[in-house]
Design brief:
Chain lengths: 196, 265
């Protein structure tokens, strides 16, 4: 089914058309939680790109060479979660060792990538779309990239909003939700029209 | 495929996956091991864990790290107070002397004793009252008694009394200073436990005006200045101020004050 889809269209699909944050609304916890400043948003995004790409690789291998031959496809959810959790743990070790300040500013959100449905969503979409190995990796990476673009846009806007005189009832989260809705409108209306 | 093989295969796949990942993570945790000072964790155990930031650092974990590694003052945690400081001292091997406890002190005796310029009807909050031409009270320095400090206190230590003035419950107060920040008229000031004598007024208005509007306001008559044997009290801008360093708490000014505006506690 998916064999004839070009890598470029899969890439555009992951980054824009099926953007995880603004079109599919997956992984919103970190979207409003870590976008208060650009530095931690960038760090979080880097971690998500890594975890999504690696999870695509490992889950593809696991699914194609272990679960399908043994006819154990019903185990995909639980085994993918285990893989993602392990990868996140690995990222946490690396970030803690090499970037302690980022580790502190990410706080609880770093371990929460485990339960970030965007990662599991990317992996499950790979399986559902019956992508090949290369296609899976490209889709995982592009989904992470789409996440990064939106995170950076959002954090840039929210950083500038702190200088604005927002009515106190709208400060913080309510205002962030408004920004998110407008960004989402832009994404839906722009990228729905790209023919693939 | 019968049920037994299915079960065994599932268990083998998930078990094997878990085992492989476990071994990988153990190797990674060895490789990326971070040395942390065990004392920091011990200190963190003792701290209240409210992460209120009253110490001036970003939460309890940060405070613990600063105390152990950078020699921040042991008594830095106002919530834990002396007990916590003593326990931290035991861990990192330092003696602590009992720090002075300080409490917010209400520098106004107005409330019901102060006349109103108009009847305020609206939101029951000092900041809102302030916005309406500097408040309903005739004295622009006085307490409005609408409880902004009560709502600011996370420890439920302030009550507005019958006299429409805030009263601080010292048993509940943790000296975090949030009420002092919240008060729009800066009525609340920190006073140490051993500072006995206080001027309970902040008005810089002239004596005649103060006498008209408030029963207890400082009129700047300088009787206290003359009565003080230690030269500790001085009137500037129609308001007496006590130099707590010099004050001997003899009570001479308290007796002399015609307005009953100096208090000994």
């Amino acid at each position: 089914m998916a064999a004839d889809v070009s890598l470029f269209s899969i890439f555009m699909d992951g980054v824009f058309i099926r953007n995880f944050l603004l079109i599919q609304f997956l992984g919103l916890c970190s979207f409003v939680g870590v976008t208060k400043d650009t530095k931690s948003a960038a760090g979080m995004s880097g971690a998500v790109i890594f975890v999504m790409t690696m999870a695509s690789v490992v889950s593809f291998l696991l699914y194609t060479f272990v679960l399908v031959p043994l006819d154990l496809m019903f185990l995909k959810l639980i085994s993918f979660i285990v893989v993602i959790a392990a990868l996140v743990q690995l990222v946490e070790f690396v970030v803690r060792k090499n970037l302690p300040s980022l580790y502190h500013s990410l706080g609880i959100y770093l371990p929460l990538i485990t339960t970030n449905c965007a990662v599991l969503g990317a992996v499950l979409l790979n399986v559902m779309s019956e992508y090949s190995f290369i296609q899976s990796v490209v889709f995982g990476f592009s989904a992470g990239l789409g996440y990064t673009i939106v995170m950076l846009m959002m954090s840039g806007i929210r950083e500038r909003v702190t200088l604005m005189n927002v009515p106190s009832a709208m400060k913080g989260l309510p205002h962030a939700f408004l920004i998110a809705s407008m960004l989402a409108m832009a994404f839906v209306n722009y990228f729905k029209v790209i023919p693939l | 495929m019968n049920v037994t093989t299915l079960l065994i295969q599932s268990m083998a796949v998930l078990g094997g996956l878990g085992l492989a990942i476990g071994i990988m993570l153990i190797a990674a945790s060895k490789k990326f091991h971070v040395e942390t000072n065990p004392l920091v964790d011990e200190v963190l155990e003792i701290l209240p864990g409210a992460n209120c930031g009253a110490c001036g650092y970003a939460g309890c974990a940060d405070f613990a790290a600063r105390v152990v590694e950078e020699g921040a003052p042991l008594t830095g945690c106002p919530v834990g107070g002396f007990e916590v400081a003593k326990q931290i001292g035991n861990i990192i091997g330092q003696e602590v002397s009992e720090g002075e406890k300080k409490y917010p002190y209400v520098r106004c005796q107005g409330g019901v004793n102060c006349t109103n310029r108009f009847d305020y009807v609206g939101m029951e909050d000092c900041k809102a009252v302030m916005m309406l031409s500097d408040g309903e009270k005739s004295c622009s320095y006085g307490c409005m008694g609408r409880g902004t400090c009560v709502r600011a206190c996370p420890f439920d230590a302030i009550r507005i009394g019958e006299d429409k003035l805030p009263h601080i419950n010292k048993n509940l107060c943790k000296s975090c200073g949030l009420c002092i920040e919240a008060c729009p008229n800066d009525i609340l000031v920190f006073a140490k436990e051993n500072e006995k004598v206080h001027v309970r007024c902040l008005s810089n208005d002239k004596g005649k005006f103060v006498k008209e509007v408030c029963k207890f306001g400082c009129i700047g008559c300088k009787l206290c200045e003359k009565a003080c044997p230690a030269d500790a009290i001085h009137v500037t801008n129609f308001l007496a101020e006590i130099d707590q360093e010099k004050c001997t708490a003899c009570g001479a000014c308290v007796e002399k004050c015609p307005q009953k505006c100096i208090e000994m506690r």
